[in-house]
């Protein structure tokens, strides 16, 4: 059994196990052990797990695993939580720069738990019959609906995620409803294989698709099951977006020690 000192963070209900791995002490983790740590009955319970790593030329590196134990693509809420954790671990630059699987990011904090995270530019969106498909660091299927609160997100999302096109590598599926001043988003996440309370890259994708035809700067308030976020960006072409910022809370829930099963 190997003991782990962990921290549990959440950003609008999207929750994560985080470890400080800057000395490489948690490089031993296997897919099975990550899955155990994220298990809500037998482990700590989380939508994903992250390691805070050293990365030359940056304040830190981000390594992200889905709850199924597999290393995955970019997680926006995870990135925001890791920034808050990095601050707690003593990385106090006004602008924190880090490397993730989709490339470099930068972030700032307002107060103790509000994180503004810069996302990658988006160039190109597939527009289909009643859907959009784009990559905001992770692949996202976006569909606008009339009554998002009444929707069976697990069943509807699972059907799309496991259809013939996506079943091999998966996609995240977002259902979006316009509100008086923004949008309401619910997301089925691959790797978790269920609805999560919030998905940062999904919220980002939905906000981009909710913008109007004008090429200008937008600020889109977003409501999720776990709370409110804000996405700011500039539309520079019909399907081109830059200077994208995902903004919202990232808070420490608790920290503790746990032993992982043998490899």
TrEMBL record:
The active site is at residues 75, 199. GO terms for cellular component: cytosol. The gene is dapF. The record marks 140, 189 as: Could be important to modulate the pK values of the two catalytic cysteine residues. This is Diaminopimelate epimerase. It is an enzyme of class 5 (isomerase). GO terms for biological process: lysine biosynthetic process via diaminopimelate. Belongs to the diaminopimelate epimerase family.
């Amino acid at each position: 059994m190997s003991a782990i000192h962990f921290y549990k963070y959440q950003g609008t209900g999207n929750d994560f196990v985080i470890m400080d791995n800057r000395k490489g002490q948690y490089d031993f983790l296997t897919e099975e052990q990550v899955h155990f740590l994220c298990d809500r009955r037998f482990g700590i319970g989380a939508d994903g797990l992250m390691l805070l790593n050293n990365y030359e030329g940056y304040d830190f590196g981000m390594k992200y695993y889905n709850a199924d134990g597999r290393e995955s693509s970019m997680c926006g809420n995870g990135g925001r939580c890791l920034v808050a954790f990095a601050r707690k671990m003593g990385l106090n630059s006004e602008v924190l720069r880090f490397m993730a699987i989709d490339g470099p990011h930068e972030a700032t904090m307002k107060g103790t738990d509000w994180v503004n995270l810069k996302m990658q530019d988006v160039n190109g969106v597939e527009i289909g019959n009643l859907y959009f498909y784009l990559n905001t660091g992770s692949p996202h299927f976006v569909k606008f609906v009339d009554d998002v609160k009444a929707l069976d997100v697990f069943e509807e999302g699972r059907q799309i995620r496991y259809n013939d096109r996506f079943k091999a590598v998966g996609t995240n599926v977002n259902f979006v409803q316009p509100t008086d001043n923004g949008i309401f988003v619910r997301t089925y996440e691959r790797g978790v294989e269920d609805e999560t309370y919030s998905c940062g890259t999904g919220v980002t994708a939905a906000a981009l698709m909710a913008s109007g035809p004008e090429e200008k700067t937008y600020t889109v308030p977003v409501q999720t099951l776990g709370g409110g976020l804000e996405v700011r960006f500039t539309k520079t072409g019909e399907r081109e977006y830059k200077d994208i910022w995902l903004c919202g809370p990232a808070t420490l829930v608790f920290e503790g020690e746990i032993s992982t099963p043998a490899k």
